[in-house]
Fold:
Amino acid sequence: MQEKPSRTQAERRAGTQAALIAVARDLFAQHGFAGVGAPEIAQAAGVTRGAITHHFKDKTGLFHAVVTAEAEAVGAALAALPSDDMAAAVRHWFAVMDQPGRARILLIDGPAVLGVEEMARIDAATGAAELGEGLAAARPDMDAPQLAALTEILSAGFDRAALRIAEGAPPAPYITALLGVIAGLGRV
Structure:
């Protein structure tokens, strides 16, 4: 009988963290941040509540890790697209946001629990630049402050549309409307 090599402490730590993030993500997506307690998360992950405090300090720290992982997944999916096709990027963003619970985690509970500034920091670190880059290509004449404001305004529109779609609204009208707004920017 061949002996299995034992996992290192770092591997066990990473495994526990990954299990907690995965379980918490599912529970937060289903019930929201306020609807889930740390004991429920620990039980579902098969660990003690102390594992949450050991690895993440508290439920909010664990939620921060979940939000960061979700934002990284969105950023990675968008980074894989060619930057010169704004229409494809818009459609793809909505497809990426269609993951069950993603809009709730990133657009409702994230800002409510972590704050708007922290969400902006996470977003900036995980791929928020794509929209600004696309808009800069569409409007090279626009100065940096205007471009930043336009990016923020359109980002809010994308977020609002994603929330409506997550609530069951058909995506096509929102995608068409946002593409129309973006196309109109070149004529302004």
In short: The chain has ten helices and no strands. The two ends are 74 Å apart (CA to CA).
